[in-house]
Every structure is written in structure tokens, then in C-alpha cells.
Amino acid sequence: MESKTGKILGIGVGIGDPEDITLKAVRLIKSSDILICPKKDLSKCRAYQIAKQVIPEIEEIETLSLEFEMVKDEKKRDNNHKEIYKTVKELVLEGKTVTFLTIGDPSIYSTYSYIAALAEEDGIQTQAVSGISSVTAVANSLGITLCDKDVPLHVIPDIDHIEDILDREGTKVIMKCGRDISRIKDILRKKTGISVYAVSDCGMPQEMCYRGIDELPGDGSYMLTIVVKEDIEK
Hints:
With 234 residues, this protein is of the alpha/beta class. It has two domains: 7-129, Tetrapyrrole methylase, N-terminal domain (Cobalt-precorrin-4 Transmethylase, domain 1); 134-230, Tetrapyrrole methylase, C-terminal domain (Methyltransferase, Cobalt-precorrin-4 Transmethylase, Domain 2), CATH 3.30.950. Helices cover 29% and strands 21% of the residues. It has seven helices and ten strands. The protein has a five-stranded parallel beta sheet with strand order 3-2-4-1-5, sandwiched between helices. A five-stranded mixed beta sheet has the order 6-7-10-8-9. Helix 3 crosses helix 4. The longest helix is centred in the middle third of the chain and has 20 residues, at 74-93.
């Protein structure tokens, strides 16, 4: 009898509020053989804890902790991804459905995407499931729009080239920037004709919204997203 090959799933669970998880995500998580989590202590794994609130039986699904190295050294990062993929590939070839639980949406700066790219090179089936991203969730929490008429949207994942991007036309969303907030504040204060907003821990019970540069919190809030909008001339 021919052996069955499994598949790799990347499932977005949103950014905090368990009510944001889609029915599709719930169904596929329940049908998974193994869940991949980035932390050994599941009580500290945000994605797992979000899913657990709507899928209590998730505790019965086998979990595997695989640490993704969040480093800027590209070679070291690539080697880490290849090691993780090697482990996942073995499970898939055994016929397992291996699921990566991801914060937000798996198509936006997700570690799952690196594994999916390696799997596709080997002809292994992958599937990504949409989740609510912080990019849109923070705007809705603030009660603002990101794009009006022909205004472009720029998503900024780090601050290495932030000044160049802030000079471009359109709305800018700066993701996970709490650790660099002091520098970002200094840069934003030099800009004119902009409105600044932010949300920390969006979707969580401790969510906080901020309006204006002076309201922004201090360093340390990793899950902080800033929105910079150009003032519309009246």
C-alpha cells in the first residue's frame, strides 16, 4: 500500500481576540496531527493561547516546540529555517498534517512563509489560512482608515530604513516597534503634516490606544504598532 504524504499548514489566529479566529482555522487546527509552536512553555505562546480559548481540545493535539532565531544575520537565520524544515519534512513524509500557528496573517512577515517556500521546492503541499492582521486591526481599534481614494499604504517591518520610507507619499504602518520607540519618536517629531496613532497589545484585554507622538508609551512594549497618516489639506 502506497504511503500517504502529509502537508504543512500556516494558520493565522489573529492578534489577540479569540473571537477573530475564522471557522476555517478552527476546523483545520482540530484536524491537525502536530502543532508547531515557537515556545516550549505553551503558557507563553501567544498564538497557542489565543486558539486554546476557542478550541479547548487543542491540549489533546501533539505539539512540537521549534525555536525560530529572530536574528539579522541572514546566513544564521537561513540555517535555522533549514533545520526546522528538516524536522517538519520528516513528519510530513510520515503522513502527518503539521500546522504552524501564526499571530496575525501568515502572509505578512510570518516565519511560516520561510518553511512553506522550502516545502514547495520539494513538492510538498502547503496551505495558508488567513487571519486578521495587526495592520488592519489597529486601524479599526483606533477608528481610523488606512487608505482613502488613491492613498498608498506602506508596511514597515523594522526601522533600518524608516526615514526614507516615511518620506514617501501615503499611510505608513510601523510594526512591532516598541523596543525602538525612543528613536522613532525623535524621527517623527522632525516630520510635519502628519498625524500619529498607535495601539499596544491590540486585541488583548490590556489593549491601549494612543493618539499623538506625546501619548506614545516608552520603550519595552514589543507588540506596539504605529500608524502615520498624512494630514489632508482642506
